Amino acid sequence: MARGSSAGAVVAALTAAALAVIGFFTYQAHAAQERSKAGSAGSRDGGSGSADGSGKSEREKRQEKETLPAFSGAGERVVYDLDRNRVWLMGERQEVKRTFKVVPSSIDPEPGTYKVESRAPHVTGSDGVPVENVVRFATSQGTTIGFSAALDGSMPDADPVRQTGGIREHRADGEAMWLFATIGTKVVVVR
Fold it and tell me: Which intervals carry biased composition (Basic and acidic residues) (predicted)?
């Protein structure tokens, strides 16, 4: 009989331990939900949900920066936002194929709809830098405007003294643009 009560005590102890573990996990889940609610409330009411006081998380701010601009057209196209210095390569079904930051040229194209007019695999840019995957789509103030990537990978700010039309991309982005934006591809420029 002592042996049976000993086994019963072990089962009771294991059951108590299991219940304690379940209780702990339940507490953790509840606490996580409360933290999440508190964080959301802080963001909604202008609380300090972020270091800059905007109430937006870094992820929300990044998504906002990467969100396709409204009224940027439909169908397959390149969208270039002058204010955000960002490009979107858009598929026929309104899906973002790729989005990336660029360094603007010293002369901006006017907002509007253009088409890719010419392309060149390798040239020397208007700033004297060897570039690749050049996709030209506009002319402004007598300067041809287009996307390109410097062969050395540099992304310097445009010299405001020189009239340049090269919108610089990282080399991988330039390759994606080259493959996407063939002659006649629509380019929408927005502010």
Answer: 55-67
Res. 156: pLDDT tops 70: yes
113-121: average pLDDT: 98
- Name the DSSP letter for residue 71: T
Reduce the secondary structure of 80-115 to three states and give it as a string.
EECCCCEEEEECCCCCEEEEEECECCCCCCCCEEEE
Q: Half-sphere exposure of 53 toward its Cβ, with a 13 Å CA cutoff?
A: 0
Reported confidence tier of residue 115, pLDDT bands at 50, 70, 90: very high
Whether this prediction's pTM lies above 0.70 is answered by no
Distance CA 45, CA 94 (A): 33
Q: Say what the pLDDT of residue 5 is.
A: 62
pLDDT digits 0-9 by tens, 66-105:
789 988 999 999 999 999 999 999 999 999 999 999 999 9
Q: Which residues contact 55 (CB under 8 A, 6 or more apart)?
A: 42, 43, 44, 45, 46, 47, 48, 49
The DSSP secondary-structure symbol of 31 reads H
Which tokens belong to 135?
Answer: 């996709």
